[in-house]
Design goal:
Layout: H1 2-46, E1 53-55, H2 56-61, H3 63-68, H4 72-81, E2 85-86, E3 101-104, H5 114-133
Antiparallel strand pairs: 1-3, 2-3
């Protein structure tokens, strides 16, 4: 009897561990989804005012971007795998890949009113000015 009760408690421990792992995976996936949504906004904000593209170095150096992402290169890689962005480098490293252009695949304006898009572009231009002055 004791061997069957110990195997059932061991089995329930594994089941709880699997549930915890599943919950953690869901949390990580939800965080990544939010980061990718924010990435689209940041590319419009920081990048070229006429096209949804930005140099990796400019995106990396933006203060809001630095505060938001746990790992910008990892978020960009996940967005690339999902077909959200494209860029011509297998990896992105600060310094070595600053001039790599990151393009949004969907070039239509983000789901926002045009005046909000213009506001995003202006705040990105202000951020670039602040970076160049430092």
């Amino acid at each position: 009897m004791s061997s069957s009760s110990s195997s059932s408690s061991s089995s329930s421990g594994r089941q709880m561990s699997c549930q915890d792992s599943g919950s953690r995976v869901n949390e990580v996936e939800a965080r990544l989804d939010k980061e990718i949504q924010q990435l689209v906004i940041d590319i419009w904000r920081v990048g070229d005012p006429d096209k949804p593209q930005v140099k990796f170095g400019e995106l990396f150096d933006d203060g809001d971007v630095q505060q938001h992402y746990e790992g910008l290169a990892a978020t960009l890689k996940a967005a690339k795998k999902r077909g959200i962005v494209t860029y011509q480098s297998p990896i992105l490293l600060k310094g070595a890949h600053d001039k790599v252009m990151v393009h949004l695949v969907d070039t239509s304006p983000i789901k926002t009113h045009d005046e909000n898009l213009e506001e995003l572009k202006k705040s990105g231009a202000d951020a670039k000015l602040n970076i160049s002055q430092s």
